[in-house]
Amino acid sequence: MHGGRKLLEKYGKYILFNSRHLEQSQRWFERYGEGTVFFTRMLPFIRTFISLPAGIAGMKTGKFIFFTALGSLPWNIALVYLGYRLGDNCTIVEKYMRPVSYAICGAAVILIILWLMRRRKERTV
Question: Which positions, given as ranges, span the membrane (predicted)?
Answer without folding.
Answer: 64-84, 96-117
